[in-house]
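Before the break, one more example. Copy the sequence into your notebook; we will annotate it together after we see the structure.
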Amino acid sequence: MTEEISLELLKSLPKTDLHVHLDGSLRLGTIINLADRYRIKLPANDIAGLSKALVVDDNCNSLVDYLRAFDVTLKVLQTDEALEMAAFELAEDAAQENVRYMEIRFAPILHTNNMMSLEQIINSVVEGLKRAEKIYNIKTGLIICGMRHFNSDVSLMSRRLQDRLSTYNEQELAELLALETAKVAVKMSKKEPKIMGFDLAGAENGYPAKDFYRAFQEIISGHLSITVHAGEAYGPDSMDQAVKYCHAHRIGHGTRLIESKVDDESVPTLYRYFKDKRIPLEVCVTSNIQTRTVNSIQDHPIKKFFEDRLRLTICTDNRLISNITVSDEYYKLVTQLGFKKQDIETLLIYGFESIFLPYEQRKNLLEEVIPEIQQLLYSK
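Here is what the structure looks like once it is written out:
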């Protein structure tokens, strides 16, 4: 049995992508077409120029720099037509590399500039995902995001809310909008099973998860799954709050969990808690380098996490902005960190074990993909 692992082999393997943002994963051509249709000014009107403006590389300076591209992508995602198209194309692109199951996340409040309701916005994305599933061998779910910070410049609905609730400060407004988003997600999930989870996204440092306790109580009462962006731009305390106050079932990124590790594994720590409780980390290696969460792939703790048997799932974060696919992420682990075939098999299975589908559906999907993974990896 050879240990050679090519990019083509990785593309052929059934995979998951459980942390991917809709507004960070558009096609460049689609952005140009939508901007032309809706008369929106772009930094450039050709593929090469727009790529230079939106796609970051390893020379990106910070998370703030990384997030600037969203100012452009959000401008073209303000209609039901655009949202449906973006969702369909994202699932289509993922299916081309045999992503068998994908959970797409987005914050509906950021798509209200044409005064669509949150329900209409979510339904548009759901319809795009359903259309893709009819054509391709992919299953999808939707994670609804609340935003940690209030930005009246991004959302017309936010500006109007700020005008009418003049006694609320910006953080109180952020909490109020997250609560409303959570309530809408729970209400819609009763009739639409694709809505399966809730997330807290946006600037992490200075916007603690515990402030959004009411929103997560709403989600818990509605029996939805929970993931929280944490341990990226802020340390282990952010992750501690995510499990303590938000009852997170998964963590988005979680890179800085390594800071809570101690040499004596018998000592109760947050690190050991994640290991023992099998709380998955949605690992996005490329974007972590680009946002300067880590300085290089060699500095990334994923190898240590894996050796310590934490549950990890390999994700893209933003396929456009990071110029990445799931297969590319796995290929970096193979070529730069020395991951072997058995390691890849373990990571792939971790991904399918970590999805937010109901137990029976998750079990059936695992039974379907495990023989396929083993056949492709070990047949030569």
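The radius of gyration is 20 Å. The beta strands are 15-21, 99-106, 139-147, 195-201, 225-230, 250-253, 281-283, 312-314. Try to locate both features in your own notes.
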